[in-house]
Sequence to fold (455 residues):
Amino acid sequence: MKEKIKIASGQGFWGDLIDAPYHQVTKGDIDYLVMDYLAEVTMSILQKQKNKNPELGYAKDIPELMKRILPIIKDKNIKVITNGGGVNPVACANAVLQAAKNLGIKNLKIGVVLGDNIKDNLDELILEGAELKNMESNEPIELVKDKILSANVYFGAFPIVEALEKGADIIITGRTTDTGLTLAPMIYEFGWKNTDYNLLSAGTVAGHILECGAQSSGGNFLGDWQSIPNMAEIGFPVAEAYPNGDVIITKHPNTGGRISFETVAEQLLYEIGDPKSYITPDCIADFTSIKLQDMGNDKVKVYDVKGFPETQFYKVSCSYADGFSAVSSLTYSWPQALTKAKAADEILRKRLANLNLQFDEIRTEFVGYNSTHGPLAKELDEDEINEIVLRIGVRSHDYSSVERFGKEIAPLILTGPPSVTGFAGGRPKPSEVVAYWPALIDKKFVKPIITIMEL
Fold:
């Protein structure tokens, strides 16, 4: 058993800093690089890509990244774990193997975790008794089943552990929990059991801190954000993990950003729901038990985490087609910029009503005034407003209504309030609305599949 391992966060989402993984493997010593690419909407995007091309459906940044870091991780014996396989982990693995082959790299094993994608098995699962009701509304999935775009089970850390046990150098998964990517190396290296709930919860908390990349090292920080040094070269967090469950959150020396009690604590509060019951496939972590110690020099100790047994369910993330939308904007300048924008909104809405168009929702924002805080926005003196962007969007199950909306924006320029600009890119076109359907499924219905691909 190792005395400690270093697990580095390389991505917080698909589209994060492209160079971050490279810096993590070159600017200091680490044992594992973990990269989280997936969000709920990402799965539907990837599924659409795969529907058009069966060789796609994964984060396309990964093969290019691997061209840069494969020689380094092989030389330093760094293992890589990512859920960037999306809805096509096998194709992603093949692309990485091809990159390795082109580089002349040999003896490379890639573990692939499958089984999370249940889109094509929904009818069978429902017949077997998996209800898949909406977790929020309790509505039956039959309401949207025929419009499902993607359906993926959230697996946890243990399928990744199995891949590590089979000798994988790189592990590519589908919809694995963000926290599971970090927890898995701890289970594997320290021999934690699936009943060591306090230890599993400690690893889960570490994964929660790392999952959003630099958000725990000073990025998006709500405190004294102006004091965060050198954000242009911000360092992503690294978890130094120990067999007893203690974790020290740090970053590589001579990188920007800051690891402090405040930056780590703020990330701990991110997307947790009930703090006493942070539910994952591996355990239930009690965030109220967490203790933090700021050790200075960009080090924060996380310890004394308590946890409980996992539930009998996996969470399922489904997306489905729910009509069409379009959004457009115009910019009105001083004087009376806000008054002009509000008048334009009223004119446009009346014209849409006169056309008897059918909309489920019409939403207006006045950017520069209330687009962030909505009805809580502070009243402003119009003499102090240089410009206002009128941003208006519509949503409907009637494609023709959304299409006609797009034809009513440009006319406002010459048939509405004065001092208007900002219309570019042509008429807004309808785009498909993707809605979210969260559900639960008993673990007995779904089994992860682990396979090894190698050169």
Summary: The chain has two domains: 5-116+154-311, 322-435. DSSP finds twelve helices and 19 strands in the chain. The first strand starts at residue 5 and ends at 11. The two ends are 28 Å apart (CA to CA).
